[in-house]
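COMPLEX REQUEST
Ligand: L-homoserine
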Amino acid sequence: MKKIGVALLGLGTVGGGTYRILKQMKEDIMRTDGVEIEVLHVLERDIEKAKALGVDPAIVSTDINNVINNPDIKIVAEFFGGIEPARSFLIASLKAGKSIVTANKEMFAKCRDDLEVAAKEGNAGLYFEASCVGGVPIIRTLQAGMQGNRIQSIMGIVNGTTNYILTKMSDEGLEYADVLKEAQRLGYAEANPSADVDGFDSMYKLSILSSLCFHKRIPLDKIYREGISKISKIDIDAGKSFGYTLKLLAIGKKVNGKIEARVHPTFIKNDNPIASVKGSFNAVLLNGDNVGDIMLYGRGAGDLPTGSAIVSDIVYAAVQSEHKLSYVAPTTDEDFNTDFESEYYVRMSVKDIAGVLAKITTAFGKYGVSINSVQQNASEGVASVTFMIHNTRESAINKAIAEIKSLESVNTVDALIRVL
Ligand code: HSE
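STATUS: Structure written out below.
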């Protein structure tokens, strides 16, 4: 039987999960895929962690040369996260003819060109199923299951931490800061939560996923990004009264031949299947011109779900006779539309005096921004006014809001949330 040697770079949460699955599924993989996967080396500082997983200490070190110089290692799976040393170690592995498997979305989104050059040089494969939506096989679906379609759009919840926070805020009527604190205490959110709550993690994933949808490079600076840290319980409740659920969505779509890519909190209708995705679950809705809608749902993080995707890539890489890179064409500014259209929810606090609403609606009208509905609650000289705005361009609403903010009778504009 074909034997394939593998190195694991790191034995943290996902590395450990991967090791456990490889051990558990070894015989099954031999039977179903005709290949024996053998872990020949592990890079890990913490020898006790390795021992606890049952790894032979003789194959554990902190020296990447033990991986690069071992000709029996054909596949290198990386679990470090961050850019360095992951990038350098993977480039050296590829140049040495070893295929790589990574869950590292930030490094992959930022360094893909360098990895592809090294993969071509070493005639090796680049596998990244675990980089997006954890255990859900979205990359394989896009690469190997959608050839009969031009994909029109991808839309989804690709970050579990933010979906957990928004779900708790919505279901339990809690404020953002309180849920975040609890999520950090339970280990669901990082001590520095910025990568998740500010939308960076979703942006990296959207760059990777939409490049596979549209077969074009999607540079990070072409993705609009907004996180959830300014979301208030008041807005979630107001959305509910209009029949909406608030989600942090990653959206990639083609509009009149141009690509739009954005990550932002979005009100979606309660009957949209994405609205019912709760807690730390992820879901992605794809639309292909021939197949129509496809929805994938599952766990986007965790040792075994992400380990499941890593093991799938290891086996997939192990059985390939020839490695193939995904085709993604270069792009220029012309390929993108950054002034996209959306409906909006706007909440502001104003002085409860005559003529205020007239001034605000005049400012909206000046920029062609059309109001769908208005709600107002006034007490003690202050009114909270909520507008639902018809489809309009970002540039138009931003100009209107800037002018409204400058009105003497407007205290604050507290929320501007896109509505799908
Ligand atoms: N931090 C990510 C999330 C998991 O919360 O979904 C890994 O991408």
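REMARKS: DSSP finds 14 helices and 16 strands in the chain. Residues 159-161, 196, 201, 300-301 surround L-homoserine (CB under 6 Å).
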